[in-house]
Amino acid sequence: MSRRWSGVLIVLGMAGLTGCAGKPVDSFTLEVDLPAEFRFIGAANYGPATGQSCTLPTRRGKRPERKIFIARYKPVAERVSFELPLTEVIEDCPTVLRSVDFRTYAKWGKRDTDVGGDSAGFSIRDYSQADVPETGVQELHRQCQWLFRTAGSQHTIIKVLVCSAFGSASQSPEQRAGAAVQRDQLPGKTLRVVFTLSDEEAPFFDNSWLTVPGGWKRCKGKSLEDLYAFCNGNTTDFKPIKMPDGRICDVYPSCR
């Protein structure tokens, strides 16, 4: 090959690399930190970009404007990662990512029905109010906790998963109520959603349990058959509870 053609090819190759390097990044990495025995179904929701007059039809079944991503149960804590586009052309309509929704599930026992769930999400806004962290990683946090209660005539223990709203680590719980992420902070960056699970459980209903050594006692209420069984100041009368493994106990969770 002549030196002339070698030089031409080198110039074209460099031009190609420059073109790729100059192409704006149109996606971001979503990382999700999950405790052990957690799973979720996430959905990235797209809508017409600002200034576009096109519309997307209302439909059931397959929805190209809603991209689903899933993380399945694992016996240990894990971090999963997804690449999400910020813009999409759907049926000739230019769209942008408007929001991300999560439906979170967690196991609290060995039976298939021993599962709790909770929902959350955050929106993507077009204006900016804050700078991107120097690390290039933004974080949203969600604290989860198991709340226990009894169900049925045998007063069997079941659990409900309750999680706080998404918010950044620096925000107060009140500020986290409406979590939003600025669109111009996302291209080429990482957004990390961190789920944590509290080590402490708590009663689902107030005025139904009394704290005792080893845990909690279930108030008797009007009778042993009273399913609501509020304490109403009675700190001497209690009812037995049935543990998930079938044991009949007086105190949850120690079964004393």
Concise summary:
With 256 residues, this protein is mostly beta strands. The protein contains one helix and 18 strands. The strands form four sheets. Strands 1, 4, 8, 9, 11 and 12 form a six-stranded mixed β-sheet that branches. Strands 2, 3, 5, 6, 7 and 10 form a six-stranded mixed β-sheet that branches. Strands 13, 14, 15 and 18 form a four-stranded antiparallel β-sheet that branches.
Give the key terms:
1 helix, six-stranded mixed sheet, disordered N terminus, 256 residues, mainly beta, 2 domains, 45% strand
Could you please describe the fold and organization of this structure?
It is a single chain. The protein is mainly beta and 256 residues long. It has two domains: 24-144 and 163-197, no CATH class; 205-253, no CATH class. Helix content is 8%, strand content 45%. It has one helix at 3-22, and strands at 27-34, 38-48, 66-71, 78-85, 87-90, 93-107, 115-125, 137-151, 156-163, 180-182, 190-197, 202-203, 209-212, 215-219, 238-239, 241-242, 248-249, 252-253. The strands form four sheets. Strands 1, 4, 8, 9, 11 and 12 form a six-stranded mixed sheet that branches. It is elongated and about 70 Å long. The model is unreliable at 1-21 and 169-177 (pLDDT under 50).
